[in-house]
Design a protein that fits this description.
YbaK protein; 15 helices; aa-tRNA-synth_II; five-stranded mixed β-sheet; proline-tRNA ligase activity; single chain; BirA Bifunctional Protein, domain 2; ATP binding; Rossmann fold; alpha+beta
């Protein structure tokens, strides 16, 4: 492709509304153009990268036994109402009505649609297992679109779905897709970790997220410094272990004045006790019922864990007004002693001795609290966030934190969709049973942004070879010089014939402009034709390393072949 006729509108300045590297560089490198908040056009350079990523996905999905199809983007509301997700998805679901006032949604995912197809065509266990996928534009009405392609309202996603007659078959497909994802993200050049995750609105239980490590990641990964253990911080388990330094002396329960105390820090300072000895009481609405949830003062409630612990559909913390109405005392003074509410506590609470908690009277707290003696706890569980430096849940090493960008996720959905939508098969005994399902998604456009987050420097993008928009950026530094122009045309034809994808900068621009654009766009290999064109010598530079060498045109093809093998093996 000749750059003089290629739509590549590079920018010198960083756009003011772009906060992260991938967003800035995709705008500056002429890859994307914003149409509305969270909605972008993919310009030719971006499309070439997207096609490279999609081709890798196609190859790995085919190896995993998945078949490609395409489903509608426009979904009738009735399908989503069958599973209850029409209401559960809330404002993130892009909704619209047709001229007949019929409700539709623009699909953010396709569980309902694919289940409706399978229930109409699959009747026997003999037709299973089955695995299908598509790559398609999805829609999500983000409240606050940001970070370019990382959190948009319109995005490209690969979604796959598997169908099974038993748990063993589902597990086998899950493992195959897990392996396919690992290969996919390795091939596109990402440093990533598969982490234990929560399935959220997708339903199901077992799930892993594939997280590309990046400082701008919106998710926190908890990982072991001595093993392969990694989990989304919402799902990282906490080891339950009694402290070695429990006091042997048990104080008497005593009610004390705590006027003008509002926070854990205030209580700690006033009563001269560590936050770890304070019991924090949180009034929580669990599927419409009020529950008092207890965690240590130095810990933070993990609502995802609490939801799983109580097998709840919805939980939320009470407002200040609701606390006054239910407990008859302000937030800072509520406590578990003598309450008529159901009490649920984190495991750490049972080891509190000589602690402090609210007394359910304004400006009053109890001291000398011994949890197992003074509090009627109905249910203990792991309901807090793990902290950095704590033991890893697998018993190997300590927990460390890192930020990550979710680029893919695999789910064991079980029978949630098939039961709600009547997708059944006859088993070996002729008995009707719901089909077991798996779901597997890759954010294609997010993956492109994540690649840039990991592969850039102060000058621009540094593409991995396999996903680069072109393999070689060929620069004729002075197109007015006939020898440079002729050699440029010759090498453009020669390298293209050898199978390389070449972007030939044949523009009548200054050399400095061409070098700056080449660094910004980040094609792996740059070949510059300059003053030594008459001698048959060009300069070859590797973008990510900065390695530069002069090469004779007669040796160029062989030298390139060796360099390309090095780049592919990195």
């Amino acid at each position: 492709m000749k750059q003089s006729s290629f739509l590549l509108p590079t920018l010198r300045d960083v756009p003011a509304d772009a906060d992260i590297a991938s967003h800035q560089l995709m705008l500056r490198a002429g890859m994307i153009k914003q149409l509305a908040a969270g909605v972008y056009s993919y310009l030719p350079l971006a499309k070439r990268v997207i096609h490279k990523v999609e081709n890798i996905v196609h190859e790995e999905m085919s190896k995993a036994g998945s078949q490609q199809l395409t489903m509608p983007t426009l979904h009738p509301a009735e399908l989503w109402q069958e599973t209850g997700r029409w209401d559960k998805m809330g404002g993130e679901l892009m909704r619209l009505k047709d001229r007949h006032n019929r409700s539709f949604a623009l699909g953010p995912t396709h569980e309902e649609v694919i289940t409706s197809i399978i229930r109409d065509f699959i009747q026997s266990y003999k037709q299973l297992p089955l695995n299908v996928y598509q790559i398609q534009t999805k829609f999500r009405d983000e409240r606050r679109p940001r970070f370019g392609l990382l959190r948009g309202r319109e995005f490209i996603m690969k979604d796959a779905y598997s169908f099974h007659s038993n748990e063993e078959s589902l597990h086998e497909a899950y493992e195959k897709m897990y392996e396919a994802y690992s290969k996919t993200f390795t091939r596109v050049g990402l440093t990533f970790r598969p982490v234990i995750a929560d399935s959220g609105a997708m339903g199901g239980k077992d799930t892993h997220e594939f997280m590309a490590l990046a400082e701008v990641g919106e998710d926190t990964i908890a990982y072991s410094d001595s093993s392969d253990y990694a989990a989304n911080i919402e799902m990282a388990a906490v080891q339950v272990k009694a402290p070695n330094d429990l006091p042997t002396h048990r104080e008497e329960l005593n009610k004390v004045e705590t006027k003008d105390v509002k926070t854990i820090e205030d209580v700690s300072e006033l009563l001269n006790v560590p936050a770890s000895s304070i019991i924090k009481s949180l009034l929580t609405n669990v599927d419409g019922d009020w529950v008092l949830v207890l965690i240590r003062g130095d810990h933070e409630l993990n609502e995802i864990k609490l939801k799983h612990q109580l097998n709840a559909k919805e939980i939320r913390l009470a407002t200040n007004e609701e606390v006054l109405e239910v407990v008859k005392t302000p937030v800072g003074s509520i406590g578990p002693i003598g309450t008529s509410l159901k009490v649920v506590a984190d495991h750490a609470i049972q080891y509190i001795v000589n602690g402090v908690c609210g007394a359910n009277e304004e400006h009053k707290h109890y001291t000398g609290v011994h949890a197992e003696r003074d509090i009627d706890v109905e249910n203990y569980g792991d309901i807090r966030f793990i902290k950095e430096g704590e033991p890893s849940p697998d018993g190997k090493g300590k927990i460390r934190f890192a930020q990550g960008i979710e680029v893919g996720q695999v789910f064991k959905l079980g029978t949630f969709y098939s039961e709600n939508m009547g997708a059944t098969v006859l088993d070996e005994n002729g008995k009707s049973k719901p089909i077991m399902m798996g779901c597997y998604g890759i954010g294609v456009s997010r993956t492109v942004a994540a690649i840039i987050e990991q592969h850039h420097d102060e000058k621009g993008i540094t593409w991995p070879y396999e996903v680069a928009p072109f393999h070689i950026h060929l620069l004729a530094l002075n197109m007015k010089n006939q020898e440079q122009a002729d050699l440029g045309e010759h090498l453009y034809s020669l390298l293209s014939e050898k199978g390389y994808e070449v972007l030939f900068d044949d523009r009548k621009e200054r050399a400095g402009v061409k070098f700056n654009d080449a660094d910004l766009v980040g094609i792996p290999i740059r070949i510059a034709i300059g003053k030594k064109a008459s001698e048959g010598i060009v300069e070859l530079k590797i973008r990510h390393s900065g390695e530069s060498v002069e090469v004779s045109v007669s040796d160029l093809v062989d030298y390139l072949a060796a360099k390309v093998q090095e780049l592919k093996s990195e």
